[in-house]
Structure formats: structure tokens, C-alpha cells
Amino acid sequence: MERSGLTPDKVTLVTALTACSRAGDLSLGRRIHAYMDGVIGFSLPVANALLDMYIKNGFLEEAVNLFEMMPSRNIISWTILVSGYAFAGQLDKARVVFHQCTEKDLIMWTAMINACVQHGCFEEALSLFRDMQMQQVEPDRFTVVTLLTCCANLGALDQGEWIHQLAEARKMKIDAVLGTALIDMYAKCGHVEKSVEVFERMQGRDPKAWTAIICGLATNGQAGRALELFGDMERSKVRPDSVTFIGVLSACSHGGLVDEGRKQFRNMKEVYRIQPRVEHYSCLVNLLGRAGLLDEAERLIRDIPIDKDAMPLFGALLTACKAQGNVEMSERLTKRICEQGYKIPEVNLLMSNVYATASRWEDVVRVRKEMAHPTVKKTAGCSLIEVKGY
Asked: What's the domain of life for this entry (predicted)?
């Protein structure tokens, strides 16, 4: 277009900047920025497209400089900057921009709620939703899906049920996206029958919806139903993904179904060509460990490199060793971990428990002394679920 001597208008520039955002072409984006400044003058739609382009290419500082120099802004400008700060991990600055904006629409509220969810601030996200309602801003389906994620992570069943009722009152279609969020929320809050009800009623089940209900049933101890639904999924010609098989293998582990677990692990690799991840190996190691098949479990992970991400896998086998009283294998695994330079408090704790189970008290004391070293710290864990509104 440039070589033809044609002059781009503002619509052309916005479209080109959208392409720059998606293609990561910062060089052309900067040329368009210079063209706006030097030729056509300030244009709010072009400036907003520039903001988006800089942020999506990882140049937040340039976006902030542009935002501060803009002679006029609209709600789109403010929303882009809030999302940009959130994407860059700067939630505090996203909050500041959000509160500075005097006129907030649904998209702005949803952007800030999403920012909180991205950073694990679920209670704050729900608080923002209540503020949003006080301002009489009606949520859409995207807001509802985000809020259901909050409820799932907080175990806030009452709040989740209320949001479900709100979605139905607004006549929102329970499609694959909203339906999957509802299934996940009810399952994580322990109301698995409601998850099944939503699944049976929803329209257009995609792989994520099938995966959500299979994983939900598996984590709530209903292995048989999870595997039945997986069979239905295969018969429906819906292709499972790697997450689906985490649910399937977890169901096999909970149900103690060794042969089925082996079969599904093999099918995942050979039939669906899905490369197993640490999570898949952990499920199978748990299953084999509970069945007392420790040698098979150790062979399974023999060639897996030891790194921080693989620690849960080795922890699963050490836990099985403790249950079976296999001190020799526990020591072999611990030595393998230590040879790689890892000092993991959880591994030491498991090892001390193995020794205690075998009544090897001198070794228990030795390992506990190592754990008491000031450089070794145990990461605290926590769990939360709502019961009767509390």
C-alpha cells in the first residue's frame, strides 16, 4: 500500500496495529506510532491500538509513557492499561489505575476482576463483583465464568450457587464454556451430583467439559462413574487430551484399578499419541504404590530426570515406600535426589517417617537434625472450603 503511494487512514492504521500485536512486529508498530505523531496527528482509536500493541509485545513502559501523553482517553484506554499491568504481574498498579478511572463499564470491571483471579486474589475478586453490583453494572457470561473460578478455588459453594442462579435468571446459555466452569465449581466444592446434573443438561459438550466432569468425579472418589463417562466420551468420538487422562488415571488410582490404569496409560501414548507428563506418572506411581508394586513403579520413573517439577513424582513413590515399609528403596531414591543437589524438606520428612515406620530411631534423629538446619524450611500448606455459608 505504501509503495502504491496510497495514504492509510485511521481505520487502516488500527487494523495494521492489530496485526502487529498478533505477529509481534514491534518495528512496524513503532513506525505507525511515528506516522500518527508526525502526519495524521493524535487519534484516540489509533492510540488505543498502540497501547495494546506495546503491552502485548512486552513493552509496558512504552505503553505507560504513551498513556500519560495522550491528550484524551476513553474507557478502552484505561481498560487496556489495567490489563497490561495485570499481565505484567503488577497487580498493585492495576488497582491504582482501576480506581483512578471515574467511569467504569462492564469490560473495565471484568478486566480488574480477571486481574485479581490471575494473581490468586479470589476474595478480592468477589468483593469487586459486589461493588460492581452496587454500581448496578450487570455481569455478562465472561464475568460469570471468572467468578465461578473464584468460588471453585475458595470452596465457596453458596456464592457459586447464587452466581449459577444469576446466570439462569439472565437466561445465559449453559454452553461448553459456562457449563465447564459450573461443573468445575460444583466438583471442587464437593457437590459432585450437581456437577453431573449440569453436564447432562449442557449443550455442545467439548473435550474440556468431558474432562471437567471426569476429573470432578475422580477427585470426589467416584472412580467407576468417571471411567464410565470416559468410555462415553470415546464412543462420542470426542478426543481426550492430556488433562483428561490425568482424571482417568486419578480415577484408576482412587479405585485401585491396576490393570485399567496400565491400559489407559498405554492407550494415552499409543492410541492418542499423548506424551505423559509428571502428573500422569504420579497417578500411575500412586496406583502401583498402593498395590504394593514398588519395583514396577521405580522402573517406570527410572529414566525421568530429577528436577523441581518432578519432585511430587518422587514424593509419591517415597510415600508408597513408607506405606509398604521399603527402607532400601527409600534410601535409594533419596540418594538419587541428593546427588542432583536438591535439598527438599518434604523428602527429608518422608524419609524420617520411613525410618520411624521401620523403628530405625537413630536414623530418624539424624534426618530430623538435618531438617532443623536453619537453611531448611518447610513450606506451609493450607486448605479452605465453605460449609453452610462460612
From this structure: Eukaryota
